[in-house]
Structures are given as C-alpha cells and as structure tokens.
Write a structure and sequence with these properties.
This protein has about 90 residues and is mainly alpha-helical. It has four helices and no strands. The protein has one domain (about 15-80).
Length: about 90
C-alpha cells in the first residue's frame, strides 16, 4: 500500500499538469487582465446607468410634487440643487 502511495506521489496529477501548461502559455496573463478589465467596464457602466436612471426619476417626482402644489418652487429648487454632484460639498452645512 505504501508503495502505491509513493508511486502516485511522484507522478504529477492532472490538475498540476494543466496548471503547468497554463502558466507556460505567455499570453495567459493578458487574457486574465483583459477579462478583469472588461468585467470592470461592464459593471461600471451598469452602475452609472442605474444612478442616472434614479436621478432622473427623482427629478420627475419633484416636478410632479411641484405641479400638484404639494411643495413650493423654492423647496423644489433646493431639492434639485442638493442632488447635483458638484453642489453636494457646498450644501452639507444646510
């Protein structure tokens, strides 16, 4: 039994052989880097699209509240200004 274990330990397993072949392929690094870059770009685009959609939905809701008379124009303007990216830093103390 020990002879069988010793014989199997000296022969490389299939997984080790596959990994050795993958590492010996020089373009594998570029394939992995490209895959990571593409996934990052796709997720970034989806995130940005969802944020834009939510921002526009909020603007429509504020306009509807203003049209119904539930809020006045000054409040609507303040809410819209708070939602802008550049004005967030300025309106923190409000």
């Amino acid at each position: 039994m020990l002879a069988l274990l010793a014989a199997n330990a000296t022969e490389p397993s299939i997984a080790v052989e596959i990994l050795t072949r993958m590492v010996s392929f020089p373009g594998i690094v570029f394939v992995f880097a490209g895959t990571i870059a593409i996934v990052a770009i796709v997720f970034g685009t989806v995130t940005q699209t969802l944020q834009t959609r939510e921002r526009e939905q909020t603007r429509r809701e504020i306009a509807a509240y203003l049209a119904e008379g539930m809020i006045d124009s000054d409040t609507a303007e303040m809410l819209l200004k708070r939602g802008k990216r550049n004005s967030r830093k300025k309106n923190i103390d409000c």
